[in-house]
Amino acid sequence: MPVNILAIETSCDETSASVLTGSTVLSNIISSQHFHTDYGGIVPELASREHIKCIDRIAEDAIKLSGLLRNELNLVCATQGPGLIGSLLTGFNFGKAFAIGQGIHFLGINHIEAHLYSCFIGQDEIEFPFIGLIVSGGHTILYLAEDYFTYKLLGETQDDAGGESFDKAAKMLGLGYPGGPEIDKLSLKGNEKFHNFPISNFKENIYDFSFSGIKTSLLYFLRKNYPDMKNIPVPDICASYQKAVTDALIEKTLLAAKNYNIRKIAVSGGVSANSRLRKEFLIETDFDVSFPKKEYSTDNAAMIGYLAYLKHTYGKINYSGFFSETSYSRLSKL
Ligand code: KG4
Ligand code: ZN
User: Fold this and answer.
1) How many angstroms is it from 110 CA to the middle of ligand 2?
2) Better-predicted residue by pLDDT, 100 or 5
């Protein structure tokens, strides 16, 4: 019998539920909390309250849409971390309670690890070893994925995450939240050679990232050239800024791939939806670069369920390696 999974994701500002049978996604509902735009960023307390309001309805809809009956589910999983604690608690405890109610197994899932495998969903699985770049609103991490659940951390951001640098730049330019998609869209009409924004490098670890300097450099550039914040060439600035951020991501990832002599690269996390990042990576014919389908780039429960499927399939439910999620097997019927 295939494993039928209900997956829940509430680590940040998306309430999402998905049902999978084995590796196949039957439903994946994502409700984004657009009201954070009014505050220019996520307000954690409001995010948790919104998750509480809609998690049961979204989970119910995901089950209905999947065509499976509630009693055909045999595994529940939810994001355990990292994320906003109030938001995590909502989905995690909903998932646990659902599992207890149904008398089935529950598994806590690491959000970053789930992003890493999102490239596999509905596409060919990538053969190990591969270099994994995960860029989201909260993280920018480079891994060498040696095998299922076996990773070597190569580098990570020492300050802002890649997505965060887009969000902060968008806020300075008076664009909405999240900033990445807005900057991506406006960049299409801009000249990326308009201005050369600097990107920092680290001597200690060449694979570490830093994105806080570029944000400050944008602030000074705006103050110096447009003190009254009028007639700003927003598309040109977006395109130049996007070029700097994406070039830094591409450069370090390719460097790691070359130094470790690995051809396969998986790019995931919200920023993997960026059109320039995708285009420029795909120009690199010496490497085989994979991206998640667009619907699995930004936060979604299907990727949480997919990792639970992998853990179930490859017998790693009690895994304790680099990622430190806990699995709850007391109610297991599997
Ligand atoms: O993975 P994700 O949905 O949530 C976290 O785990 O943080 O990533 C959200 C981040 C935001 O910072 C958002 O601005 C960025 O991904 N993002 C993009 C694009 N779409 C989303 N950044 C650049 N270009 C995009 N098209
Ligand atoms: Zn994420």
Assistant:
1) 10
2) 5
